[in-house]
Input
Amino acid sequence: MSIPPRPEIRDLKPARHGGPDRAELKSWGFEPADVLDFSVCTNPYPLPPGVRKATGTAVINRYPDSTSTELREALAGKLEIPVENILVGSGTTELIRLIALTYFGPNDKVLIPQPTYGEYEVACKIMGAEMLRQVAGAEDNFSLKVAETVDLIRQRRPKAIFLCQPNNPTGQYFTKEEVEAILDASPDTLLVLDEAYIAFVDDAWASLDLIQRDNVIILRSMTKDYGLTGLRLGYLVAGEEILSHLRRVCPPWNVNIAAQKAGIAALAQNEYLRRCQKKVEEAKRYLVAGLESLGFTLVPSRANFFLVRVGNAAGFRAALLKQGIMVRDCASFGLPEYVRIAPRTMPECRKLIAAIRSLK
Output
């Protein structure tokens, strides 16, 4: 007789993500290295100088620093905030679950605007929290009506709200005034502002001052902007009281030594991000122009990725995969007519447009 898990776990379904599935690729006769992957929204350019050398110096027969002190100090200098306001994690998804574990319980209400990143819902379900959903529609280019968000918060008083900024997969970006209006709606609601893709937003407004409100957590990713995807590295910024609660729950040694070393080395490269941002924006403009010239409808996006309406997303993805190219089928976001595309290098982007032209 098997021992059953908690009721919340019994019917839990994992969130779907972009990126290669080795078993799927093998069935198509591909290895991951053979595929051009436009389904993940990470920096497509080579790692910052010094990262590989730094990871090679990692002492792997000892425990890593459990609080990632040197990396937090490097982040504090970069962000110009106290080191006490930073917690490092093994990617932002670990930190999302850490927040849920620390703050949510059965029947707590959590507002999750839709469509958005699936791991927010998974983290809530693990803890038995009740989800409130506000759905943004295609007629508004999936832009959230913030006045309705404010009314919903005032009426239902959720324990927390997740805002993906810019939103994955739609690329919508909230203004400072919109975020402050959401915060003003309830000082007792925890706002988790997920800025995993903020490095690719032109003229992004400064958000870190929001942590002075004592009910804000800001998530950032180093896997997206610095291309450290395989190492898993992210961090959050919050007030000291929130950090004190999260640290009690955070597992010891949650960030491996190679990831810590890589993060420190990446932050030392001051011009790396600026150069990559410029090239990614150029590639995005090329893709947008190319797809529009082929007659596709695109959703305006402030992020490095964007949605394309293709009709049958699963079929469109499969047709490209036959040619060794991956895009993100957005059915798991509730958008079965859309794919999400993120730019790669210009030569790779030209191959994508050529492949899609051949399908048309």
Q: What stands out?
A: The chain is about 40% helix and 15% strand.
